[in-house]
Amino acid sequence: MEEYINESSFNNNHNDGYGNIPFGYAILLGAVLELVLIAAAILILSHMPKYVPIHQQKPIMISLANIPTPPKPIIKPKPKPTPPKPIIKPKPTPPKPRPVVKPKPTPVPHPKPHVVKHVAQKVFKSVHVKNVPPSPAVHEIVPPAPKPAPVVEHGPINPSLIAMLTGEIRQKIKSSLVYPSAAKAMRMQGKVKVLFTYYNGKISKIKIIRASQFSLLNSGAIKTLELANYPMPPKKLRNRILQFSIWIRFKLHR
């Protein structure tokens, strides 16, 4: 009984290939192998194609490009044959009437006058004088004699005489002032300076030196000078050509 137990008992010193490896190292080796297997499984699974369930797959959008329809061929309509134009014959133009040429009158030849020369001969015959009515008197037309040139005196002039004559002329112009009615109606007022030549109570060569802004007053000043009755100059100023410049005033009285 004791011999059987001794033979079957576990002998720690038995060398079967694993006897030299401790138990703790075996456990550690198994854990390392397990980790290697897990890593290999993970690596294999990561490289495997993924399969997505049918209910989780997203729909794929497929867009169809618009295929352009080929253009329809343009069918040109056949041109209608134009009917030939009717040939219109031009109307014959009537011949132009020829102008009637009147025959020129044939000139009538006039006989040349026959000149008969009479030779005066002294014939002494007794002539009976009858009562012949006297011929009417012929009045000769005598052209008018030319007017004598005005006598013009020259020499120095007394200023006092000129001042006196100027005052008299100014009074005559003032007394015969022509104030146009249209200018009065439009309340026109102003003055006009005139220049004129004076000779023995008559004036000429009227000229406006400074005109008014109204043409009616300018024409009234000229008419005033034409209608005025000018005095005769003193004896020492007669036959002298004098020039005067005078202001003619047009003023309305209130």
Secondary structure layout:
Elements: H1 2-8, H2 23-47, H3 159-175, H4 181-185, E1 190-199, E2 202-210, H5 215-227, E3 242-250
Antiparallel strand pairs: 1-2, 1-3
Structure description:
The structure is a single chain. With 254 residues, the chain is α+β, with helices and mostly antiparallel strands. The chain has helices spanning 2-8, 23-47, 159-175, 181-185, 215-227; strands spanning 190-199, 202-210, 242-250. It has a domain at 159-250: Fusion Protein Consisting Of Minor Coat Protein, Glycine Rich Linker, Tola, And A His Tag, Chain: A, Domain 2. Helices cover 26% and strands 11% of the residues. Strands 2-1-3 form a three-stranded antiparallel sheet. Strand 1 and strand 2 form a beta hairpin. The protein is elongated and about 185 Å long.
Mean pLDDT: 75
What's the number of helices? 5
Which oligomeric state applies? single chain
Strand order of the largest sheet: 2-1-3
Terminal residue distance? 187 Å
Strand content: 5-15%
Compute the gyration radius: what is it?
A: 78 Å
Q: How does the overall form come out from the CA principal axes?
A: elongated
| CATH fold-level name of one domain | Fusion Protein Consisting Of Minor Coat Protein, Glycine Rich Linker, Tola, And A His Tag, Chain: A, Domain 2
In this structure, how is the largest beta sheet organized? 3 strands, antiparallel
Low-confidence stretches: 1-18, 123-127
Per CATH, the architecture of one domain is 2-Layer Sandwich
